[in-house]
Amino acid sequence: MSEGGAMGEAPDAGRGNTDTRERILDVALEEFAARGVAGVRVQAIADRARVSVRMIYYYFGSKRGLHEAVSTHGVRGSDANLDGVTATDVAANPLAALFGRRRVDSDFLRLIQWEELETAGTGEPVVNEAYRAEHAEKRTELIRSAQAEGRLPADLDARMLSFALHALMRAPLAFPGLARTATGAEPQSAEFSARYEATLSHLSAALRSRTGADAEEPARGEGQTEGADAAREANA
């Protein structure tokens, strides 16, 4: 069957339906992360997921539809990470509150990198760009709330701060070679984790100190522990 897609057999019902769809998404993420969207064959995904190509097209319509579903699945996992986060949490430790409650999926990060490479210079938006922008805005609004309460510096661009914090948390996993060259330590090593965690904790404390908010927050040792846990999970 061609990669173009066709509707075929109906999927199995009930729990098996959900399990099959999740299995396809898991395999597709690994394939897209390893080869890019353009380099992936639907037949290869079907073989690894132990389903027919027709089944994949039944669920997702096309390879593009499958790619969009994989991307949405990953972004929504990050979205749930913000459930219950308050401006007070962000002020206490912005890195941990906004980015540190969910272990980063290295495959999903590589998928995003492939998307950037494959859309660069084409003028085409990345998959689910509007949804991703909405998700990013939630983080920005939490930062703005903390600024409005006087817990983070009001003169900082909230969107740029959110982006900078995001980059800080993901950089060692996204660019392990650069991290090794710049620091002299392996990004997965205990030495790197300890040094990077300490640096991120100091940065969080520095943001709070500009507003005098440190007096209302836990002692530095406690804050550093939270920041360390966040960085360790983000780059594991």
From TrEMBL:
Q: Which GO terms describe its biological process?
A: regulation of DNA-templated transcription
* Superkingdom of origin organism: Bacteria
Which residue ranges does the Swiss-Prot or TrEMBL entry mark as DNA-binding? Answer: 41-60
* Span list, region Disordered: 207-236
* Residue ranges occupied by any HTH tetR-type domain in the UniProt entry: 18-78
- InterPro entries given in the database record: Homeodomain-like_sf, HTH-type_TetR-like_transc_reg, HTH_TetR, Sco4008_C, Tet_transcr_reg_TetR-rel_C_sf
UniProt keyword terms in alphabetical order: DNA-binding
**Basic and acidic residues composition-biased segments:** 211-220
Q: Name one GO molecular function term.
A: DNA binding
- This one is known as TetR/AcrR family transcriptional regulator
